[in-house]
């Protein structure tokens, strides 16, 4: 049994002439300790796929399971417990500095303040963003904002991490390091599902393509090759 299973997922918006099919009969499995990347053009539905995988959005048809459990029936307890959905936005009411934003999400789930603070620091260090702890979110550059967002998600110690376009808005020189960070998390047993509109975002991942609502590629790890990480030129 795979950690994440999407079976025959379909999603559409609008009706009649305005109907737009975003996903059509899409199936995908992600194993623990695996990184999978969904490539697609803008408005291809890749972000919708990730939201459905996280339980943030409901499919029109099909089933999403995490660890064998139907997400539609259990998403309230799974999101934030077993699923880390990486948000790159920071709401002012969640704290003044970065560290506050990592702590408040844990407090909302009943984690003791001292434990939440320790986990926040550990997550920031794990994401190589410890120097951002006392900064305001508005002071972060693109790469730092992504690292902090990843840290905020992994502070909740999820089994599955979902990151929509982790390298968008990030300086070219910092992109490989972020992909390496995500790949390293799989070495600790975490599953990582990302989306991207750039071929460089596929490095180190099992890659699938989303086009015209259909998912192309090999849906399971046993059938699919993993693209190697790009080597930096000398």
Cα(first) to Cα(last) distance is 42 Å
Q: pLDDT below 50 for ≥5 consecutive residues: which ranges?
A: none
Mean pLDDT: 89
> Beta-strand level of the residues, as a percent range?
15-25%
- What letter string, H or E per element, gives the SSE order? EEEHEEHEHHHEHEEE
Largest sheet: 6 strands, mixed
**Helicity level:** 25-40%
Q: Helix/strand-derived class?
A: alpha/beta
- Rg, nearest Å: 17 Å
Number of helices: 6
Strands in their spatial order, largest beta sheet: 6-7-8-3-9-10
**What is the total tally of β strands?**
10
Q: What general outline do the C-alpha atoms trace?
A: globular
Short description:
With 234 residues, the chain is of the alpha/beta class. Helices cover 29% and strands 24% of the residues.
Strands, helices and their partners?
Elements: E1 4-13, E2 20-30, E3 35-39, H1 46-54, E4 61-66, E5 69-70, H2 71-78, E6 83-85, H3 98-107, H4 113-126, H5 142-154, E7 160-164, H6 172-186, E8 191-196, E9 206-211, E10 214-216
Parallel strand pairs: 3-8, 3-9, 6-7, 7-8
Antiparallel strand pairs: 1-2, 1-4, 4-5, 9-10
Helix pairs in contact: 3-4, 3-5, 4-5
Characteristic key phrases:
single chain, 234 residues, alpha/beta, six-stranded mixed beta sheet, four-stranded antiparallel beta sheet, 29% helix
Structure description:
- The protein is an alpha/beta fold and 234 residues long.
- Helices cover 29% and strands 24% of the residues.
- It contains six helices and ten strands.
- The chain has helices at residues 46-54, 71-78, 98-107, 113-126, 142-154, 172-186, and strands at residues 4-13, 20-30, 35-39, 61-66, 69-70, 83-85, 160-164, 191-196, 206-211, 214-216.
- The protein has a six-stranded mixed beta sheet with strand order 6-7-8-3-9-10, sandwiched between helices.
- Helix 6 links the parallel strand 7 and strand 8.
- It is globular, with a radius of gyration of 17 Å.
- The relative contact order is 0.19.
- The mean pLDDT is 89.
